[in-house]
Design goal:
eight-stranded mixed beta sheet; two-stranded antiparallel ribbon
């Protein structure tokens, strides 16, 4: 099964980093968040990726063009113009990088990679967040539902502590509780290629008309994820993820 990853947005709320690089290339623990997402999929045997490029997409192309060298020891013999690679190490990945346009919307980006998807169901997610979603169970759930699309539902983490107050007295305190109990789109979709017919053109936002129509027609299932999920929308989010990674117990690091 293939995994399509959106990696073309501007990331304006993380401008401290994205002025120089696309958001999926912002590093957590010295590796792009895109790499962390791909490692999650790879843990469950999904190693064929289609990455939708846009803003500064050439930097993502350059990263993968040099990935083998990044991950290996290497000796450059300058006098003889030779290169020797030692202890070569690389992922079992096939990565297709597609320029889907600078201003294309999320649905339009998916539509533009249709030629690389084939006739089988595929995974689809965003290139700016991490989670410990069990991809294997997600795919199995999708197949059991018989719908064209499955979305992973999550409850967003709270950003502020909450106070329980009665008669002017604080009776309880919760440090950053879950949100209001409502589930939201956590990304990590499994989709039939037939969903491409629900996308009109490059101006279509996947999260609006296509998903709304799929829901109306009873073709959208929800896989409930109760584990870790964290988007990287702001510098504060990046700092949180860096701290979790540095602690040695990052919840999304499910690979060895």
């Amino acid at each position: 099964m293939k995994a399509v990853i959106l990696a073309g947005g501007l990331g304006t709320r993380l401008s401290e980093e994205t002025v120089l690089k696309p958001k999926p290339m912002v590093e957590i623990g010295g590796m792009p968040i895109l790499w962390h997402i791909m490692k999650t999929y790879s843990t469950y045997g999904v190693n064929d990726f289609v990455v939708c490029l846009g803003y500064k997409g050439y930097l993502i192309k350059e990263y993968f063009a040099n990935y083998f060298l990044h991950m290996s020891d290497v000796t450059f013999d300058m006098a003889n113009n030779k290169m020797e690679v030692h202890q070569a190490s690389a992922e079992p990945w096939k990565v297709t990088l597609v320029d889907t346009g600078q201003d294309t919307m999320t649905g339009g980006r998916m539509k533009r990679v249709a030629a690389y998807l084939g006739d089988e169901d595929f995974c689809f997610t965003y290139g700016d967040g991490v989670a410990n979603v069990d991809i294997g169970k997600l795919i199995k759930f999708h197949k059991s539902q018989g719908t064209l699309a499955t979305v992973t539902s999550v409850q967003p983490p709270g950003r502020f502590g909450a106070l329980d107050i009665e008669n002017g007295k604080i009776t309880g305190f919760q440090e950053k509780p879950q949100g209001d109990g409502a589930s939201i789109n956590g990304g990590y979709f499994v989709l039939s290629p037939k969903v491409l017919d629900y996308i009109a053109d490059s101006t279509t936002t996947w999260e609006r008309e296509p998903l709304e129509r799929l829901a109306r027609e009873g073709q959208l299932s929800a896989y409930k994820h109760e584990g870790f999920w964290q988007p990287m929308d702001t510098l504060r989010d990046k700092t949180l993820l860096e701290e979790l990674w540095s602690s040695g117990s990052a919840p999304w690091k499910i690979w060895k």
